[in-house]
Design goal:
By secondary structure, the chain is an alpha/beta fold. Among the domains are: about 95-265, Rossmann fold, CATH 3.40.50; about 460-530, Roll (Luciferase, domain 3), CATH 2.30.38; about 555-665, ANL, C-terminal domain (GMP Synthetase, Chain A, domain 3), CATH 3.30.300. About 30% of the residues lie in helices and about 20% in strands.
Length: about 675
């Protein structure tokens, strides 16, 4: 998912002596398919229009929504960095995502094809979704939820999660969705920070073939949260569930008996829509606040533009969880505002078999697929023969989100999933940006494997050095956003000063994303990962992303994670952890070959000092590699906090291998 940002680095902390080394050269190019380009939703003209009149461009995109009161002012930037977009306009977000499609005669169109992990499925039309959202909105009202209240949502990937979020939006309550894998303590801290009065959860969900309980974590969390008045519980698995009389309410008993009539009330464009928590390096989680009009404008526009969505014919599938921002913007709000038909899948990609994703693509005739590099690298590791068993010919656009994608993974995705014909849109954005910011357009851009390339129409992004000067083509440094954008975070919930300090203090007047980036000779942008993942080796700043990409380009390597470890001679030494492909065997000869391969690809300065073949890498539940823990291993320190890992036993396995790790001579 889009990068969790870290609290701001001090001036000169990372890219200190010299710009980020621009080591990786990628020469492959892929033109847009002619048929797609000929009928594309967005053409080169959009860039020209937005460059000439940025605010006029966004005012036009806002008109794609249905407003109860049309806005007359596009942007109020009188008190930076606090933006107001379309501030005198009024709208109801849920009306835009559901009712207006029914009123336009599209009530019979499928909104959601739900595929449960156990194999249960149901298809929900827009008319049915409108009824469900209306009933849930009436239920929230019965429970005392009012506009301006906060509601915590802790649900598996089931349609009720979408219904709950839209019901909150309909009544003007901000939702705070917490990913279903988080611990009771993590849930409690988020409920407390948002001061939520209602929690919506389920008895459990299905994961890897068996029920996984959710309600016990909520019971433990709510015990620390006296402000919670009710817990609304969806019955998904039928597990025995503790029930607190007077507090806990079954969804099927409360929601199902409500009227399907509910008049949506319009709210100000700047009315809070949701709070989504992202981790900081220190202290409590940061509640990222998004509001209604600007957020929905950009989520809907980017979904329409970047995926070339044709709602009458496309079947769209974003494989993210709704607990992450990708699920908010590109499962719930963007697609539904555009009247899309989409697939929603509950489980994991390898249950009951490793071809599950491709089985789903084949079953529903998916045309647009949006997934993460970590998933793509996993599919590579499992082998080319698995997707080859399924008919993927319905696909026409492929998307990537969550982290920079290695060029070899990009090529594999295009070849084995996209049949060497589907354009890939490699999208950069964050929880904080709310919607896509940098991405190719499928009918316009000649794509480059591994590059997000160009800021979208209406978005202003560049790469600067330590002194905030824009770097020339070929240079590297920090990614910054230089103009406000409609879906930008409005603040950190309850902490305006932290908002200013974290994002706006590093470079005056610019939003600092916390990511390293480089410009190639054409001026296209290549993301290089979090700035804390830059290594300083013998005075050269080297990106972990580039070294990882070089390793993955070797036929024996399925996945790689690289860290810098303290070294007496070079300041930092490069240490690589690699997962080998199925047929490769771990030998000193192979390790030497991999080190030389990196040297020949990027130059001798980038050769890893140590390479450790491992079975798995430590990843968070959203699929991000926890390099911090690998750094602990590489520097022989006690391993830090592992509570956010999907599988904490991975670290024991890695540490047990350490004594046998091959090092350079």
């Amino acid at each position: 998912m889009p990068g969790d940002t870290t609290d701001t680095l001090g001036k000169g902390d990372v890219v200190s002596n010299e710009s980020l080394a621009n080591l990786l050269k990628e020469e492959r190019r892929f033109a847009p398919p002619a048929d797609l380009a000929a009928a594309a939703n967005v053409t080169e003209a959009a860039y020209t229009q937005a460059d000439a009149d940025r605010l006029g461009f966004w005012a036009e995109q806002a008109r794609r929504l249905t407003w109860a009161t049309e806005p007359t002012e596009t942007l109020d930037w009188s008190n930076p960095p606090f933006a107001k977009w379309f501030a005198d306009g009024k709208l109801n977000v849920a009306y835009n995502c559901v009712d207006r499609h029914v009123e336009a005669g599209n009530g019979d169109r499928v909104a959601i094809h739900f595929e449960g992990e156990p194999g249960d499925s149901r298809s929900i039309t827009y008319a049915e979704l409108k009824d469900e959202v209306s009933k849930a909105a009436n239920a929230l009202t019965e429970l005392g939820v009012e506009a301006g209240d906060r509601v915590a949502v802790y649900l598996p990937m089931i349609p009720e999660a979408v219904v709950a979020m839209l019901a909150c939006a309909r009544v003007g309550a901000a939702h705070s969705v917490v990913f279903g894998g988080f611990s009771a303590d993590a849930v409690a801290s988020r409920i407390q920070d948002a001061d939520a009065k209602l929690v919506i959860t389920a008895d459990g969900g299905y994961r890897r073939g068996k029920p996984s309980a959710l309600k016990p974590a909520i019971d433990e969390a709510v015990a620390k949260c006296p402000q919670v008045e009710h817990v609304l519980v969806v019955r998904r698995t039928g597990q025995d569930t503790a029930f607190t009389e007077g507090r806990d309410v079954w969804w099927h008993e409360l929601v199902d008996r409500q009227s399907a009539e509910h008049a949506p009330q319009p709210f100000d464009a700047e009315h809070p829509l949701f709070i989504l928590y992202t981790s900081g390096t220190t202290g409590k989680p940061k509640g990222i606040l998004h509001t209604s009009g600007g957020y929905l404008t950009q989520a809907a526009y980017t979904h329409h533009a970047v995926f070339d969505l044709k709602p009458e014919t496309d079947v769209y599938w974003c494989t993210a969880d709704i607990g992450w921002v990708t699920g908010h913007s590109y499962i719930v709000y963007g697609p539904l505002a555009n009247g899309a038909t989409q697939v929603m899948y509950e489980g994991t990609p390898d249950t009951p078999h490793q071809g599950r994703f491709w089985e789903v693509v084949q079953k529903y005739g998916v045309t647009i697929l949006y997934t993460a590099p970590t998933a793509i690298r996993t599919f590579m590791k499992w082998g080319d023969d698995i997707p080859a068993k399924f008919d993927l010919s319905s696909l026409r656009v492929l998307g990537s989100v969550g982290e920079p994608i290695n060029p070899e993974a990009w090529i594999w995705y295009r070849k084995h999933i996209g049949g060497d014909r589907c354009p890939i849109v490699d999208t950069w954005w964050q929880t904080e940006t709310g919607a896509m910011m940098i991405s190719p357009l499928p009918g316009v851009t000649e794509t480059k494997p591994g590059s997000a390339q160009r800021a979208l129409p209406g978005i202003s992004a560049t790469v600067v050095d330590d002194e905030a000067h824009e770097v020339p083509n070929g240079g590297g440094g920090y990614l910054v956003l230089t103009e406000p954008w409609p879906s930008m975070l409005r603040t950190i919930w309850g902490d305006d000063q932290r908002f200013i300090d974290t994002y706006w203090s590093r470079f005056a007047g610019k939003y600092f994303a916390g990511d390293g980036a480089k410009k190639d000779d054409d001026g296209d942008i290549w993301l290089l990962g979090r700035v804390d993942d830059v290594m300083l080796v013998s005075g050269h700043n080297i990106s972990t992303t580039e070294v990882e990409s070089a390793l993955v380009s070797h036929p024996s390597v399925a996945e790689a994670a690289v860290v810098g470890a303290a070294d007496e001679t070079t300041g930092q030494a490069i240490v690589a952890f690699v997962i080998l492909r199925g047929s490769a065997s771990e030998t000193d000869t192979l390790v030497a070959e991999l080190r030389n391969h990196v040297g020949s690809t990027l130059g001798p300065i980038a050769k890893p000092k140590r390479i450790l073949p491992v079975q798995e890498l430590p990843k968070t539940r959203s699929g991000k590699i926890m390099r911090r823990l690998l750094r602990d291993v590489a520097e022989n320190r006690a391993v830090g906090d592992v509570t956010t890992l999907a599988d904490s036993s991975v670290m024991d396995l890695i540490q047990s291998k350490l004594p046998s790790a091959s090092s350079e001579d």
